[in-house]
Input
Amino acid sequence: MPRVLLIEDDEAVREGLSLALTYQGHTVDAVRTGEEGLELLGSVTPDVVVLDLMLPGVDGFEVCRRIRAGGDLPIIMLTARNDDIDVVAGLEAGADDYVAKPAQARVLEARIRAVLRRSTASVAEVVAERHGDLTIDREGLVVTRFGRPVSLAPTELRLLLELSSSPGRVMSRQQLLSSVWDQGYLGDSRLVDACVQRLRSKIEDDPAAPVYVQTVRGFGYRFGPL
Amino acid sequence: MTLRLRLLLAFALLTIVTAAAVAGAGYVRARDAIVQRAQDNAVIETTNRVEQLYPLPTRAVDTSVLERVAARVSGREGSALAYGNGFAAGGMPPSVITAELRALVSTGRVGWQRVSYSDGVWLVVGMQLRTSSGGPSGIEVYVLRPFTSEIAFVEELARNAWLIGGAVLVLALGLGFLAARGVLRPVRELQLAAWQLGQGDLSARVPVRGRDELASVASTFNSTASSLEHHVGELRRMEADARRFVADVSHELRTPLAAMTAVTDVLDAETASLPGVAGQAARLVNRETLNLTRLVNDLIEVTRFDSGTAALALDDVDVAEVVRTCLRMRGFSDVSASLPDGVRARLDPRRVDVIVANLVGNALRHGAPPVSLVLSVTGSSLVIEVADSGPGLPSEVLPHVFARFYKADSSRGRSEGSGLGLAIAWENARLHGGTLVAANRPGGGALFTLRLPLGGGV
Output
């Protein structure tokens, strides 16, 4: 079972979530502050970080940015209920998904499973695909640009795989939420928009005039046409 | 008619009357005096000339005598005519002498009359000559003298009167305009301030100038506005305090609830192994924890609407798909839904989901099946109508149906929701720039109509 790093300042919430996640079979490292969490990352390698945004000292957004700068570790943030500004800022800081507090353990568990899921795209072709300057290896889950590997967070990679699996086809945000974020229900379209922004900044020459991930006004997104 | 026009007209009228009275009376008096004096002079002069004729010859009056008399009395500018003993002599045309004048003169008095003659005004003076003893001589003499210069003078007088009157009128209109402005400016300021007050700008005041009636109106207005501002400010402060209190309480409740909610699943899974009563107790705690969580979440949602921090996460969606997902995921199977495909709109699907879930849930709970949901497009709005077949909403409930914690039946338990569901649905519709309206169908049953702009509104 996956190892979870839980960063939450409130003791009761931290204890409750630790209990519940441990009960589900996860290994949980629970810490109180962002500093402790970042320090712990030096010694342990969790599969996913569950991060409260409101933290004393280094806040959740900053922790998020630092983790992102260091690698592709999936991040799920805990936000105050529907606090829109926090949600948007957290997604921009690089979080893959979010869960609003109070949340039942099964909701958090589902989000953790979703971010840890491997590519959803059915792997038909083994050979790496070429799309312009991009090469996408669906088997090895490696994306290169001009031959150099691009560091993508898990959701970014899955979004790219999903969109590029049928180039030119428009997918709505709700479709992408369902296939990439595993949300069977009506999801928050800002997850998609924020992830697209991050993805564009990594693979596009000019993120303001995207070539690979294009917006189709009134419908959603599509890959290409190049 | 505007106040300004009325004031100007009043000024003009006043000026005309005054000028007409003053200038007119002056003109008439001056004219009479001038004419009278000229006439008197003419009469005196004529009389003097006539007196120079004395003593009159006593012989019988004949034409030569009359000619001599006429020549003597006709001055430099005039001409004369003398009658006597049935003869007439002189350079003056007899036609200018009227019968009245002759009749007057024949009684022995001195008569005069103004006449029009050869493009001008002339004065005819007539009198009888007397003998030196004072008796009548039987000779009447008439003198025709030009009167034009006096008339011209009088006409100039009249012209001057008109000119001055006109100038005064213009001046009066100017003054009237200034006076109207002086009166109207405070009135306009008052009007503007009253309008601002009506628009909700309670800080609107007017300057108070002087001590007249308008100034007292202005100061009354100011004090009224001040007290209004004070009271409204007080009310707003109290309301804001109350709302902040609710928001604070909700947020304070959230953290312990977050800890409790996190472990409900653990507890749920373990209750089966707990002995009898302990298991029941654990299930109760679990259930009510989730209920409390829902209530607190709804409260927080409401406080976010109140504080204006609620925001839309807009997405381009197929509305039928959103509604279908909502009905499926919430387990609303007893709903006959008419969901035409291809209705695309820009909206927040999760908020629309909340609205639809509340309307349908409400219809199923309080109304009676069958419950129908109809999606349609009217103009640039999408319309979702949710109707049930129950008795409909009582008329006393209808105005309060979207009020927070409003319970149609006070005896009804609380298990049917937080009491905020329809209020939140209404706020969500408003956030989209749309409307949510409750009504009763003519055939019975409640009908909720949601209208949202297709283009994302706001």
Observations:
- Residues 129-223 of chain A form a domain with the Arc Repressor Mutant, subunit A fold (CATH 1.10.10.10).
- Chain A is about 40% helix and 20% strand.
